[in-house]
Amino acid sequence: MPNTFYPKRSLLISASKPHPENTQYKVSIGEEDWDGALHTVIKIQLVYNGKIAGRKAPSYPYNSDDAERVAEAIAQIKKEYNEAPNVQYIPDIPMTEVPVGYYIALLRLVPPGCITRWEDIEASIKVRLDLERITPAFATWPYQDGEGNEIPYWRVVGPYGYLFSRSDKYTLEHQERLLIAEGLPIEPCGAGNKSRRVREYKKHLFDFRNAPDNIFDNIAEYKRPGVIHGKTK
Q1: How far are the Cα atoms of 49, 73, 98, 140 from residue 20, in angstroms, in the given order?
Q2: What is the 3-class SS of 24-78, one letter each residue?
Q3: Model's pTM, two decimal places?
Q4: HEC string of the chain?
Q5: What is the pLDDT of residue 183?
Q6: In this model, does residue 91 exceed pLDDT 70?
Q7: What span, in angstroms and rounded, lies between the C-alpha atoms of 210 and 23?
């Protein structure tokens, strides 16, 4: 089926439970073909494990802040588009699957009192492996590392510092308690102040540029640069 939508700007937003793990909303602005004429539109798509879910329309869990975060993403890409509307459409670059161990190795570097976002972790992986588009390889995300230490998923926030539930084990309330205990300032936000976010979150983001150069050396799935899980870059 030929493409009918040509995105110019896009943002990926993590989706809350009960969506499956690794679900995202793709918020895009671009040109869409309506009966032979191109119109500028905003489109929201569901993404599962890096793949767009065709004709499936996105739904936002009622007790989550997903709708608010998607609304913020829409406002951001509209602002960016209005400032530079003549970005040319570039066809999608093939996605490379990366073992979840790479993500966890970087997440484990984030100390108490700091936070990160999946976007920041992916940016570091792409630079270190010289890749342009990546997605976690389909696998179970462990609660503990190989040494029995709990993996600090609670230090991962949404693109704008929002807290969010990942599972029955990692609820928004659980994340809030742990971050407050580590000294992070949390404030209510969103409709009816039902959501939570880290105040001035950018001040607390961990900088992965100082991560050790050999951070991925001891990950079993790693073969050699350009080959991930047997898939050539």
Answers
A1: 9, 21, 19, 12
A2: EEEEEEEEEEECCEEEEEEEEEEEECCEECCCCCCCCCCCCCHHHHHHHHHHHHH
A3: 0.59
A4: CCCCEEEEEEEEEECCCCCCCCEEEEEEEEEEEECCEEEEEEEEEEEECCEECCCCCCCCCCCCCHHHHHHHHHHHHHHHHHHCCCCCCCCCCCCEEECHHHHHHHHCCCCCCCEECHHHHHHHHHHHHCCCCEEECCCCCCCECCCCCECCHHHECCCCCECCCCCCCCCHHHHHHHHHHCCCCEEEECHHHCEEEECCHHHHECCHHHCCCCCCCCCCCEEECCEECCEEC
A5: 96
A6: no
A7: 29
Q: Could you tell me the two tokens for 195?
A: 């959501």
pLDDT surpassing 70 at residue 69:
yes
Which residue type occupies 64?
S
- Report the largest interatomic distance among the alpha carbons of the chain, rounded to a whole angstrom: 58
Q: Which sign does the torsion angle of CA 123, 121, 102, 138 carry?
A: negative
The per-residue pLDDT of the chain, averaged, comes to 80
Name the residue with higher pLDDT: 165 or 159.
159
Structure tokens at 189: 């936000």
State the residue for tokens 């918020």. Answer: 27
**Length of the chain in residues, anyone?**
233
Bridge-based pairing state of the strands 37-48 and 51-52: antiparallel
Beta bridge partner(s), residue 12: 26
pLDDT band at 2 (very low <50, low <70, confident <90, very high): very low
What's the token pair of residue 152? 């600090």
- The Cα 207–Cα 172 span in angstroms is 24
